[in-house]
Design goal:
Elements: H1 2-15, H2 23-37, H3 45-54, H4 59-64, H5 72-86, H6 91-102, H7 115-126, H8 130-143, H9 154-161, H10 179-185, H11 190-193, H12 197-221
Helix pairs in contact: 1-3, 2-3, 2-7, 3-6, 3-7, 5-6, 6-7, 7-12, 8-12
């Protein structure tokens, strides 16, 4: 089994070699999945670990797509099916892994139907919170040439730079986005979207840390500190 995981990891690492959703993110999500699974009964560890390793396998293909048609969760599930079939995974396990991958995305609002899928959803979102979430947000800001802070009111920003003026929709110009706007649009809402009790507990603590950070950042930028 460990040989299979290693083969999957090598495939995913190659696919993500040019993506800001790198292998470090994948492995953090894997670790969080295993941590959350300790508090849930009757978990299929193989389905969970396999889905965690493969959940972002199509991320770079989505990034390259300028039409907006590629959803990395849907394409990733299709890619996972081929990968797992070649590795000899049974059909039923492939179906379960595909479901976990298909529903893991925050903005698509597809409901996870299995405990494994709920754990993966929660683990993936937890990696966007806390100190890790702040670090990732500023890495992306650098990648897309964003400013470190915006004082634009969120309602005004939604009108100016968000398709349909809805937080769950896409951005018109990602270079106009900032970490603190992402905090207001997405990070603050994550705890209410999680499924597992342990995930919600961790999210609450991580969000408190982020809130304190962005409040201090605002005060420093405004010259108060």
């Amino acid at each position: 089994m460990e040989t299979k995981y290693q083969k999957i990891r090598e495939i995913v690492e190659k696919e993500l070699s040019r993506s800001h959703h790198d292998m470090e993110h994948v492995m953090r999500v894997c670790s969080l999945c295993l941590h959350l699974a300790r508090n849930e009964p009757n978990i299929d560890q193989d389905v969970l670990r396999t889905a965690a390793l493969l959940h972002d396998v199509a991320r770079f293909k989505e990034f390259l797509d300028k039409t907006g048609r590629i959803d990395h969760a849907v394409l990733g599930a299709e890619m996972a099916e081929e990968i797992l079939r070649n590795l000899g995974y049974p059909k039923e396990e492939i179906i379960q892994v595909k479901h976990c991958i298909t529903v893991h995305r925050y903005r698509r609002k597809r409901e996870p139907q299995t405990t494994e899928a709920k754990i993966l959803f929660d683990a993936d979102k937890l990696d966007a919170l806390g100190a890790t979430g702040i670090a990732r947000a500023f890495m992306m800001a650098g990648h897309y040439n964003q400013r470190i802070y915006s004082d634009t009111p969120i309602e005004e920003y939604l009108k100016e730079n968000v398709i349909g003026e809805k937080a769950e929709c896409g951005l018109k110009d990602i270079s106009k986005h900032t970490p603190n706007i992402e905090y207001e649009m997405k990070f603050k809402n994550i705890p209410s979207r999680l499924y597992t009790p342990k995930g919600k507990e961790i999210a609450k603590e991580r969000l408190q840390f982020m809130e304190s950070f962005f409040e201090r950042l605002k005060r420093e930028i405004e010259g108060e500190l």
